[in-house]
Structure formats: C-alpha cells, structure tokens
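Now for a specimen:

…
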Amino acid sequence: MSFRPFIRLVLFTLIVGGVVSARPPASAAHYIVSDLGTLGGDDSRATDINGTGQIVGVSRTADGSDRAFLWQNGEMTDLGTLGGVNSHAAAINETGGIVGWAETPEGRLRACLFGAGTNVNLSGGYPNDSYAADINDHGRVVGWTETPVSGADQPRPTAVLFGGSPILQTLSVWEGTPIRGRATAINNGSLIGGWTGDVLSIWGPRDRAAFWEDLDSSAFTRYGDTDSYVHDVDATGRLVGESGLPYVWKRAVMWSGTNRLSLGSLAFGSSTAAAINQAGQIVGSADAYRFGLITNKLIFPGPGTDPDGPPPEPQVYEGYELTRHAFLWQNGVMSDLNDLIPTHSGWELTAAESINDAGQIVGSGQFNGQTRAFLLTPVANPDPIPFVRLISPADGDWVSGAEITLSAEASDGDGEIRRVEFFAQRVSRRDLLTGGISVNYPNGSRIGDLHPPGWLGSVTNQPF
C-alpha cells in the first residue's frame, strides 16, 4: 500500500539547524550475499565486476602483503606484481582485461595491465608513481601519475591516458599547463570522467568534476561544485560520483551533461556513488545509522564538573551511532543494502564498488569481524523494495524552530514496514574557518561531534 503521513514533531533541544532523514527497517531479502574469501590473509575488497561475473580487487595474503586478485567460478587467483610485494586490481573490462597498479622491485608503484603470466608496466620509463583506474572494451586505459612538486608535502596527481603515442598522454591541462587531476573512468565511446584542480581559494586548492571527450585533452570540461569527483561513466555518458562545497557534506550525484541530480543519503551525513549500470542502478556508500551500544566521551566539561580535574567517565548507552553502509539507488530511491540481504547473515555491508548489467553488486563489508569482499546476486522476482522519503523538508535540508512539521511518503508493498523513525542533527553553529560543529543539549553541556543523532519521533503503520 502507499501512504502519505503528515507528522508534527517537537524538538526538545536548543536547535537552530538540523539535517533530517528517514529510512525503513529490514525487509525481505532481495540479494544472496557470498563471501569471496581471501588469498590467505584476513582482509579482501572487491573493486569491479564485468558482465560474465569475473570480479577483481585486492586481498591480504598470509605473509601480510596486499595482492591484486581475479575471482571467477568460485576461485580467487593472485595476479602477482611487477617484481615487488604489493599490487591492486582496480577494473576489469568485458573481455577480461584487468588494470590497476603494482610494485616494482624498487618498491615504486606503476600502472599495470595484469595478464596470464605476464604483467605489463603501462607507464614505460616514467620515473614516478602511476596508477591505472579503468579500462574500456577497446583496451584504452586511464588513470594518473604523481609528480613531486618542489616545496609541497604531497606529489601532484596528473590525469593521463595510457598506451597511446606518447605512452602517457596528459589530460589535465589548462591553458597549456598541467594541473592537478585524475582520470578515473572511461566508456566505450571514449568519454573519460575524473576531476581536476580548480583555482586557489582562501581554503587552498579545490577539486571539481571533469570529463574529456574523444580522448582529447583539449576537449575538456570542468563542472560541478567545489570538491566534486567522478567515479564511473556509463555507455550513454551519465557520470556518477560525489559533489560538495567546502566544509559541507558531500552527496552522491549523477551528471547527465552538466545537469546534476543529487541522490541523497541514508542519514544526515555524506554519500558517494561508485558505479552505474545501463539500467541506471547506482551503487556506493553513505553514512548510516547502526543501533547498538555507544560509548561517548565528554570532550568539554559539563555542569558540575571540575575543569581542572580528571576527565569524566565515558557515557555508555543503547542507541544509534553513525557508520558507513553500502547503498543501491534506483528509481529515485536510495536503499541500504543491509536491508536487502537475509536477516542475521552476519554481514555488515560497508561499501558497494561496482554493479554489472545483470544487477550483481560487489564491494566490501564486515563478516565475522573481518573485512571481506562480497558478491550480491539478485533474488528472482523479489517483492518491491519498501521506502520512506521525506517530501518537506527535503532530506538534507537545514531547518529551525521549536516545532517542525514533516511531510513524508512511503511505499510498502509487502507490509514489512512497522515503524518509521525520524532524526535530526542538533547543531548550534558551524565554524566556517575550521568546519567544526558545536552541539547544544538541553542541560547546557557542550559535547563534541561524536554523539547520537537527535531522535525526533516516530509513526506506526496503522492505518495511515
């Protein structure tokens, strides 16, 4: 059934601003979750999957090194290095071409094309570190190099196209001068997505989403807000990633041309989109709430405490804490993937990195206390995914006042939703110079940023 509840809730805090979100509880399983295992260590992470179900990523080995892997037919294979210790597989195309980076005997990192028995250094004789991020079905590879800059603490990344003539074609060029940037995605139409450095501001160098057409550094467009990044591009040219402003949470976004669509978040915090398939399904990760025991240390002395005395004892209580969860976005709704797998599976899915056209999703999460790569396989003919969506104020809006009226809509075809909870972050002010937040509680004590969200209220599903 569909319903449109209007809820009037009172904020019992000294709130002048808050970010509101709502999400449904666990529903019927929509995916089967599979543990991809490791190469003998205690950690693995999947980064990409192609249409045939081949999966690549990185896994810890028994000796503690990190190695690129290929997973297929239930087996994980070590892809080796360029003579060094560590390697990382970032992407795989539809013909099985795999790229990433690997260490040389000297310990330098080089963009790498992984092959059957032979791995190829894509950067040739380039002396500094390089990284391959994506490969299309024509074998074109994009990524970045890192160049030491005199007087700077960190090297400057420069977006490049590998394998052409010259062997490294610099993409992030502005008025003839190389600038900061990374090329992170390429489709079969040779549209490249990534980001480049913007002009210096009072906050220092900022980054903006960018794309290049026809493998041409001169056909270069910067767009998006400050601190925006592209992570994937589909065959039609839709790009996904994240976008934000200085000291404001970044949100997952999709660009079609220069038109931007915000995908929202699972909580009041940040989100980022990692990949998109041809059906327009998008996966990524977002801040989310997890219910459990919370330990909250008082950073500032509260009323009745001696500012020169020992710090107060930590508060331990049951409630919601902020964590990071994998999400699926489709048809305008962002869903926590943890709500779409079997209950009591033992998994907490923290990041979704790729989705193929069959709807299979890969990423990483916590399983039995270890970080493990996962594969999600869609269940045939699942029930519709229930959702709750704020209409007014919109998810992420700043609100103020002693009483706030929330308008929400929901769809619950399988009758799984029993209770909907609404939250807001309690904020008294934001320091524009440091990005810090101070929080006021009713008793006047001042507590640091690590605190549970303010619980606004709930509404139960009868009868709407």
Remarks:
- The CA atoms of residues 262 and 306 lie 46 Å apart.
- The chain is about 0% helix and 50% strand.
